[in-house]
Amino acid sequence: MKKIPMAARGSAGCRRLFQRLVLFPACAGALAVLAACAAAPTSAPAVSALPSADVSLAPAFSSLVASRSASVVDISTLRIGRDESPEDIELEIAPERDFADRLAWPMRANVRVSQIRDLASGVIVSADGLILTSAHVVAHIDEVQVRLDDGRRFTARVVGADKRTDVGLLKIDATALPVAAIGDSSRLAPGDWVAAISAPFGFHGSVTAGVVSAVDRILAGGGDVPFIQTDVAINPGSSGSPLFDSRGEVIGINSMIYSGSGGYMGLSFAVPINLAMRIATQLRAGGTVRRAHLGVEFQEMTPALAQSFALPKASGALVVRVDAGSPAHAAGLVQGDIVTAFDGIPVSRLTDLLQQVGERVPGDRSRMEVWRRGAQRTVWVTPSEERTAKAAFPPAAAPEWNDGLGLSLGEVSAAQKAQLRLDSGLLVREATGLARSEGIRAGDFIVAVNDLRVDRVEQFKQALSRLPAGRSVALLVMRDMRLAYVAVWLPEQRPTGRASFLRAPTPTRAP
Does the predicted TM-score (pTM) go above 0.70? Predict the structure, then answer.
């Protein structure tokens, strides 16, 4: 007997259940109606039909995708080095038996060298190559590649990243790029339709849609960012992707999900575009974000708290802590004060105050209306600048040179060498052609050419140029802390074009 696939069996079962639950009662109901009609007088008024659902309420996102997808990019990042928690990282490059037996020997359990590749998304915000994404996408990376919707690929430079708001900014060397239309996230309301275009798990141009579940959502561990909560499906590879409204305007940058399994569970959170663009403007200007610092901690007001403090209504932001020597302390704020207005703008919720403070320039004097012990007071405060360390990021790729072997090499920083216990070496970022045919893979390290150790791309270039064509060269290769020489044949005619040699990216951590 032919077996029915699980999906088909489930569908058949559902149809039978539907017939039992819907069709049979419906038929019985229809017979009853017919009987009633037969018995009823002919002058009885006709029963009006029930109103049908308005399918036009759900927007058609096909036109949005057609007009906006060109501004969405795929991002792939690379980070190399030794991991402090090897259990959390999976090796991308595993030892292969066709590559020098010594390199395939088992490693010590406490040794772990990682080459971590991640996928993400971003959106073009300027025609000259500025790309908005998430800060966690570009944090601690050694290299970042961008793929445009038309298939072109670029090596990107990290302009800046703000860990506090999870906003990152990239730059590629391109012009006349399609730019996304930027909307106004303050106009969003729960129930509004939204859609995301991203590359979940690397599937380019994927579209998911849903509604806004909540706005101004403050999350534990999410800082003071008033997130947009949606039920749009967001998965690995979607971080940094744009969230569009029904008008095709970007109103958020997808940042995180709430999940107990690591995958999408119906709760996604996006950074409001008004906040993201304000941060991006500062990152573009100086690579960092200047923040006004008050030195005070607030709490959301509730009706019970308002009654306790004799506040007429449950609004404002309650002061729960004031740092000694801070601008708030100097202004006279005390624990138990309730800020009801900031520079004349009423504070209905805590997020209102956080937004107002975030928009202020350090050093500018501001007026705060405060409720204290049953009376309204005015307090003047001058925010200081929050101290943060300026982040440095990998430089752009240097000119390339073709070795004829199919190797794309990158220089290794001193910190990475210390982690890997390397005296010298170049990272294999990509291996094709002759090198790949001999078993060299991405993630390997070229330590020496014959007996000449190489530490710079220029040294590798010179070493190969001094060798006669039409013979083999011995490359000392390290993989998983094991060394072995691999013989690669030098072609008699070497290409004269430019190939893939990249200067050393210096990894640093964002503040």
Answer: no
